[in-house]
Design a protein that fits this description.
By secondary structure, this protein is of the alpha/beta class. It is about 35% helix and about 10% strand. It binds pyridoxal-5'-phosphate (PLP).
Length: about 425
């Protein structure tokens, strides 16, 4: 049979796929976690928290062990486990003494929970734009969005590298603001020698199953501030029932939840933490190979890592010059997907454009908190407020979710060959 099509015809046009066998799902769980979980199950003590001022207010032995181990690993004074990082973000905002109607500046290029945590305390999310090459909050845009109502900044260490915390902390100091770092996607990343998430007043990590290390669901809050740590522990565990016994005088936002993480999860988490360095090294090796393999492709920008910092690649973030390529992102993704590449993200979230913000409907149906007296001004969520984030979302951002697959050199080379093939056939996509 003739093979005039050659190996180079795009799979989209009937050619042979670059990747014929799907990659296996990412799985950092091994015999160590099985053994750790088995021991807890056999002990019969699956949780030991008590929601009262009691020696067990801080949980059982595995919770404490995992927290002390996290403090040592991340180099912080306090690590506080929670049952998800969404819970962690809610606790973090509450711990700051936020008043209803206060404004918190947040990135729009993030998972929705970063901003929802603000609304949970009836505070108002204000979206500042991001840097075009790191996708993290742009300090200039943050400063331009500060009003007399602004009380905090939530920086998001998106895709695996820290936001530029030095200028953000300088702004916070000048305007007397607190800073929360949402480091869900960047455990193990370093910002000028310090762990991402620890260069803020409160930070922390997600332990959801697609993050670098996981316990199924879970999260870790970190802070160096004793007072904030107490408030985080209170909100985690029924604050209102505990403040009296504890002698806590500041009752602001002492509305508690059950955000407690169990003993099984913490036992697994302690084993996972032992693996984080190697998991991060593996991601960085894959990213370096992708950097080299994709370097020559016209109109494609590979990730930029801030000088003196490291990236841990939850997502491998790329930008397309679609004007120069003369082909839409959608068409390129169609072609790559046909080649067998999975985990491609066309754009990322623009939180301000979600229906809740567009229609300003959150609590109830009448527009609370935006339409109520607590909201001191008209906050703008219209398209156009964050042009960099919007352009990336609408047209140019292309993510490869490294978090989804087990990837070694062989898998990485297959992804590179798929990209090279699509780029060699770009004219056929026009
Ligand atoms: C995953 C994630 C969260 C939420 O974490 P969960 O543990 O899933 O609740 C918040 N912010 C960002 C940026 C995330 O990636």
């Amino acid at each position: 049979m003739n093979d005039f099509s050659g190996n180079n015809r795009l799979a989209l046009m009937g050619g042979k796929k670059s990747i014929e066998t799907p990659f296996t799902r990412y799985n950092p769980i091994g015999p160590e976690e099985v053994e750790a979980a088995r021991q807890v199950v056999e002990s019969g003590v699956l949780s030991q928290f008590i929601g009262a001022w009691d020696p067990d207010f801080l949980g059982g032995p595995r919770v404490k062990e995992f927290e002390r181990k996290s403090e040592a690993y991340f180099g912080v004074k306090h690590a506080i486990t929670v049952n998800s990082w969404t819970s962690g973000l809610i606790a973090a905002v509450g711990a700051l003494d936020i008043e209803p109607g206060d404004e918190i500046i947040v990135s729009p290029f993030t998972m929705c929970a970063s901003a929802t945590a603000i609304l949970h305390w009836n505070a108002i999310p204000v979206f500042a734009d991001i840097e075009p090459n790191t996708f993290c909050l742009c300090p200039k845009s943050v400063e331009a969005n500060i009003t007399s109502q602004t009380k905090a900044i939530m920086a998001v260490d998106i895709f695996g590298q820290s936001a530029d915390m030095k200028p953000l902390m300088d702004i916070a100091e000048r305007y007397n603001l607190k800073v929360i770092a949402d480091t869900a996607q960047a455990p193990g990343a370093l910002y000028h020698g310090k762990h991402a998430g620890t260069v803020s007043h409160i930070g922390g990590y997600s332990l959801n199953y697609h993050k670098h290390i996981h316990t199924g669901e879970g999260g870790i809050l970190v802070t160096n501030d004793d007072k904030l740590a107490d408030r985080l522990r209170l909100i985690r565990n029924h604050a209102e029932a505990v403040v009296e016994g504890m002698g806590e005088q500041n009752l602001a936002n002492m509305i508690g939840y059950n955000f407690r993480l169990g003993e099984i999860e913490c036992a697994i988490g302690a084993s996972q933490l032992d693996k984080l360095d190697n998991l991060v090294k593996g991601r960085q090796q894959v990213a370096r190979r992708l950097d080299e393999g994709l370097a020559g492709l016209e109109g494609l920008t590979t990730p930029k890592v801030r000088d003196g910092c490291t990236h841990v690649y939850y997502v491998y973030p790329m930008v397309l010059d679609v004007v120069r390529l003369g082909v839409s992102r959608q068409r390129i993704v169609e072609a790559l997907t046909a080649e067998g590449v999975t985990g491609l993200a066309e754009g990322y979230v623009n939180v301000h454009r979600l229906p809740m913000y567009q229609k300003k409907i959150a609590y109830g149906s009448k527009g609370f908190p935006w339409t109520s007296d607590i909201c001191k001004r008209e906050v703008d969520y219209s398209k156009g407020i964050c042009p960099v984030a919007e352009e990336l979302h609408d047209a140019t951002f292309l993510g490869f979710a490294m978090c989804l697959h087990e990837m070694g050199d062989a898998e990485t080379d297959l992804v590179i060959s798929a990209f090279q093939k699509v780029w060699a056939n770009m004219d056929a996509l026009k």
